[in-house]
Inverse folding.
């Protein structure tokens, strides 16, 4: 493993995706246990994407996490998908984590909500009432975190959740990841937790494998901190770690 710091961000690079996912899961589990030494319950936000498969698998393998003390949230959802669509992020996480462990509560964004602004307000209140302790996230090919693509990303966003239009790179990534057959199938709009909603968490664990993310990872660790690459904001967080496999880190000097 290679490791270094860029500003406040800890960066760890592994030979394989499995090593990456296992170390990230070990660190998340250790953080959960430490937090529960002084708290009765925790609030966690999870990303839904194929890039998260490794860390979610290894988290599910652990038998010593007190899931019944954790309230689960997720960070984004398409607008207009059928409730049972396999591409829905709530369904992704139910399949890989939420239905596998006895969480205290699982709080899902409603992709079928008739009024996206009302749904944003509803989920924002849940986040306000349950301040986030831990975020497990990834980075998109365009540098987004959640669905905060560069055109809509705002480091000082006044909202916690908002409707957004997805940019072309983001939508194409969903095809590249095998989630949709063609770009015309990918919804154009989504609800997303904003950057302040994510970065207000005490601890952030960012898991990013694959060569398709190499440019985004390079920008995250070395470009100017700006919404041109929203993930650069991780370098200002007091407790954030970026986990990459060697393919995702290939362009790092």
């Amino acid at each position: 493993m290679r490791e270094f710091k860029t500003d406040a961000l800890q960066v760890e690079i592994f030979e394989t995706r499995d090593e990456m996912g296992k170390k990230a899961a070990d660190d998340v589990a250790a953080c959960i246990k430490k937090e529960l030494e002084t708290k009765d319950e925790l609030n966690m936000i999870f990303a839904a994407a194929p890039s998260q498969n490794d860390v979610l698998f290894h988290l599910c393998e652990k038998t010593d996490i007190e899931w019944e003390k954790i309230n689960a949230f997720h960070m984004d959802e398409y607008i207009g998908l059928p409730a049972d669509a396999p591409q829905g992020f709530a369904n992704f996480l139910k399949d890989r984590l939420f239905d596998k462990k006895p969480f205290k509560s699982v709080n899902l964004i409603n992709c079928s909500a008739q009024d996206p602004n009302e749904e944003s307000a509803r989920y924002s209140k849940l986040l306000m009432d349950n301040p986030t302790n831990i975020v497990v996230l990834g980075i998109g090919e365009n540098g987004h975190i959640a669905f905060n693509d560069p055109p809509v990303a705002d480091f000082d966003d006044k909202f916690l959740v908002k409707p957004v239009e997805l940019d072309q790179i983001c939508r194409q990534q969903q095809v590249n990841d095998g989630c949709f057959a063609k770009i015309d199938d990918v919804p154009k709009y989504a609800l997303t937790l904003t950057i302040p909603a994510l970065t207000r968490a005490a601890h952030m664990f960012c898991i990013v494998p694959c060569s398709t993310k190499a440019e985004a990872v390079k920008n995250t660790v070395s470009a100017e901190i700006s919404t041109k690459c929203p993930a650069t904001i991780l370098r200002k967080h007091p407790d954030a770690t970026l986990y990459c496999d060697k393919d995702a880190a290939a362009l790092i000097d």
Notes: The mean pLDDT is 96. The longest strand covers residues 9-14. DSSP finds seven helices and eleven strands in the chain.
